[in-house]
Write a structure and sequence with these properties.
Blueprint lengths: L1 H18 L3 E2 L1 E4 L12 E6 L11 E6 L2 E8 L6 E2 L5 E4 L6 E13 L3 E12 L2 E14 L3 E7 L1
Parallel strand pairs: 1-6
Antiparallel strand pairs: 2-11, 3-8, 3-11, 4-5, 5-7, 7-8, 8-9, 9-10
Length: 152
């Protein structure tokens, strides 16, 4: 009887350990901790308040080749599974058929006050990507950044 109890407890401990596995391909940085080793890395900027676990959704205006566009954050971060390709910005737009996502930002350079990036806008119809993209350069003020997510 005691042996069965011990085997049951050990089995439950092993099962609990297996269920606790998580995954992530993101490393989180404070904006003031970025250095030249991150130039050329893909990033996602969490601006405003920290947006982990979907608690806070911020909006931001970005100049895209002379046109100001407003974006909001899309985060799929449950604290355990955090995948880089699930983090992006979505353009606030009244067109319900076409959605625009700012994704695949790459760090070009860093200054004391700004992070300069090259980003890609992807276009989607009913959640399916279309063949058109826009690549453009822009920057973020470090004071507006909560975290910088770097793809590992």
């Amino acid at each position: 009887m005691r042996r069965n109890f011990l085997l049951t407890v050990i089995g439950l401990l092993c099962l609990t350990s297996l269920m606790a596995q998580d995954g992530s391909d993101i490393r989180y940085y404070e904006s003031n901790n970025l250095d030249s080793t991150l130039i050329g890395k893909y990033c996602h900027i969490d601006f405003g308040e920290l947006s982990s676990r979907g608690r806070v959704i911020d909006t931001l205006e970005i100049n895209v080749i002379g046109q100001t566009m407003k974006f909001y954050e899309h985060r799929e971060d449950d604290g355990f599974n955090n995948w880089f390709n699930k983090q992006y910005l979505i353009r606030v737009d009244t067109n319900n058929l076409l959605s625009t996502r700012l994704q695949n930002s790459k760090i070009d350079s860093l200054s004391a006050n700004k992070i300069y990036v090259t980003s890609t806008l992807g276009y989607y119809v009913n959640e399916s990507p279309i063949d058109t993209i826009t690549v453009f350069q822009h920057w973020y003020d470090r004071v507006n950044i909560s975290k910088v997510l770097i793809k590992e």
